[in-house]
Specification:
It contains two helices and three strands, in the order αβαββ. It is α+β, with helices and mostly antiparallel strands. Strands 1-3-2 form a three-stranded antiparallel beta sheet. Strand 2 and strand 3 form a beta hairpin. The radius of gyration is 13 Å and the shape is globular. The relative contact order is 0.23.
């Protein structure tokens, strides 16, 4: 399914579900570094420096909560 935007669609649906059910909670992910721009385009903000996880560079990313 590469190149068919399936990953983006899945992330959009996952974000929508979480924001509907847990609006006061931020979403924290461990993103593969090469996908940082994708997650940034979905509203995630990088936190800190890159780190290795399972032999792949990752970075912590947060999507802010919609309400307090």
């Amino acid at each position: 399914a590469r190149g068919q935007q399936t990953g983006r669609l899945l992330m959009e649906q996952s974000i929508a579900f979480n924001l509907e059910h847990f609006p006061a909670k931020y979403i924290c992910i461990s993103a593969q570094l090469h996908l940082q721009l994708l997650y940034s385009s979905l509203g995630f903000v990088s936190q800190g420096e890159a780190y290795g996880e399972d032999g792949i560079d990752h970075i912590k990313m947060l999507l802010p909560a919609t309400s307090a």
